[in-house]
Specification:
With 160 residues, the protein is mostly beta strands. The protein contains 3 helices and 12 strands; from the N terminus they run αβββββαβαββββββ. The two termini are 24 Å apart.
Length: 160
């Protein structure tokens, strides 16, 4: 089946983005996680960030019920993590893969940066919901980012 949105997706894909993993506590005692590239800062006072979750996402209901989430910005050598959490099915997080932020939201170990957030607002936006979070804690580390451009990982080679 042809993707009627492919031309629009191709145009959107011309904006290179970092890759992150959003995660939140699961009501069953585990953690839900999704690869994202819609993350952005919103405000410094108060410190706010946002990301957008597709309504068809496997963990949509879990994130809609959550009060907190964390975003781990991935380093260039963490492509396997991006791939792991990009699929439709649930991918569990093991306790040895995460650090818990002050809110109880899970951050991936080895991240380039991390943002532990309390959800302050949700906004309907077409086939997505925008999750705005107030940053409770954050960190950053040196390293190169994992970048996504033109529907693939960018490795410093010109993409047409």
């Amino acid at each position: 089946m042809s993707d009627q949105h492919r031309p629009l997706k191709d145009a959107f894909g011309r904006f290179g983005t970092g890759i992150g993993v959003a995660a939140c506590p699961d009501p069953n005692g585990g953690y839900a996680a999704l690869t994202i590239n819609s993350f952005t800062s919103v405000s410094l006072t108060p410190p706010l960030v946002l990301w957008c979750i597709e309504r068809r996402a496997s963990a949509f209901e879990i994130f809609m019920a959550a009060d907190v989430y964390a975003v781990s910005i991935l380093k260039a050598d963490q492509r396997a993590l991006s791939d792991r959490f990009a699929g439709r099915g649930p991918r569990p997080l093991a306790a040895d893969e995460i650090d818990l932020g002050p809110t109880g939201a899970p951050l991936l170990k080895g991240r380039l940066a991390g943002f532990d957030c309390r959800i302050s607002a949700r906004h309907d936006a077409g086939d997505h919901v925008i999750l705005i979070g107030e940053v409770a804690a954050y960190d950053s580390a040196p390293g190169d980012p994992l970048i996504y451009f033109a529907s693939k990982y960018y490795e410093g080679v010109e993409t047409q």
